[in-house]
Structures are given as C-alpha cells and as structure tokens.
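Researcher: Re-running this chain for the archive, since the previous output was lost when a drive failed. Same request as before.
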Amino acid sequence: MKLYYRETGQGQAIIILHGLFGAGDNWLSVARLLEEEYRVILPDARNHGQSPHSDDFSYTAMAADLNELLDALGLESALFVGHSMGGKAAMTFAVNAPERVQKLAVVDIAPKYYPVHHQTILKAYSEIDLAQLKSRGDADKAMAAYIKDISTRQFLLKNLTRTDSGGFEWKHNLPVIREQIENVGEPLPENARYEKPTLFISGSQSDYIQSQDHTAIRQHFPKARIETIQGAGHWVHAEKPEAVVQLLKELFNEND
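Model: Regenerated structure tokens:
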C-alpha cells in the first residue's frame, strides 16, 4: 500500500509511526526539533489519516507498507521510531527486515499482548451521527458524554473532516478498526529478535510498560535501553517532546 506521508528536514532519514486513531502530524512538534539534523518522514498508517483504507488491519500488513515506503523513498534503510500501535508496527518490521532498520526507538508500548481497552473511544465515535452533524462543536458535545478529557477529545476529533458536499466523514476506517481491534494488542512472536540498538521510552504516568515487561523487552531486543520520562503519560511525545528528542538523539548518535 502506498502510504501518505509528510516530510521535513534533511540528513539521515527517520521514519516516525503514530499510534491508533492518530496520524503522522501528531509528531510534528518532535519533527521540528529534529529537522535541522535529520530527514524526518511522518507517514499515516493504513486506515488512518490520508492513507488508503483496507480490510487488512494487521501488523504484517503494516510492516509490508513500511517496506514499500522505504522503496518509494529510495532508501535502503532508515532509523525508525514508533508510538503505541506504531511501536508495534516498527517492532514487527524490525524483526522481519532488520537490514532495513538501522536503529529502533519504541515509545510507550511493550512487545507483549494487550487486551482490548479502547471500547470507550469506539463507543464515543459510534455515538456521533455524521448525517445529522451540523458542526465540530456538535461532535464534541456528543463525544463529551464518553470522553471527559478535552485534550483527548480534540485528538480524537482530528479524524473528523468535511466532505465535498459540506457534510462530515471520518478520515480513519472506523468499521475495519472496530472489527479488527483485537489485532492492535497482538504480541511479537515468541522467537522474534532484533539485534541492533533499541530504545524503549515510557511515561512515568503510563502503565503501558511496567517493570515486569523489561525481561521480555530484552529477550526480543538484546541491545535495548529502557528509559522513563517523568511527568509524562501515554502520549509522551506530545507532553515532553524535548525530553523525547534528547533520548532519540542519544540513540542515533551512539556507536553500535
């Protein structure tokens, strides 16, 4: 699949992969901090943003998309960064095509199984009747019954866009995401390994990576370094972009 992507900067290429319900532009603040030294590519995952929709919503398919993206960019390999679902996609690609991943950074996700925990968000999306929607404010009011946090609602409503006829539609492929949401929590295969330098970044206020996950992380990624950013939740890059960039540069600049 030919993914839509944004690009900024020049130098060594970094491909940054967003999480579920997101888009590449979620990482623009980090890209701006990297663009003087790096060529930063921000793709929208399949079924998200401006990338095509598909009935296949699996990490195998997402990894194949990354292989095709590198070819389209004329790159043999690149540095990879992935957050949450994007982290799982990056891990899957790294263990299957290590020659194309120079180094790997994974933000607030472990290679383990996660049970489905997006029911409230899916319910909030489902309660918005697009045919009756008059404004983004109406959508926000409908979603507020399920999502109390304003910043979370603003993030989720970035997926709402106007149609040519003046109505509204979702950018992401909500029916397929809802139907295949179990795929998002899949673990890496037991024997999957990536032997190159890897960085795992977690937020101190997030429970996605716990201390008991460190053993599994190092089994899959023997050269993994695990860092926690204080005062950050799951959206570490949005809350503490400077701290994330500092850790990324340390990884990218260190000798293997």
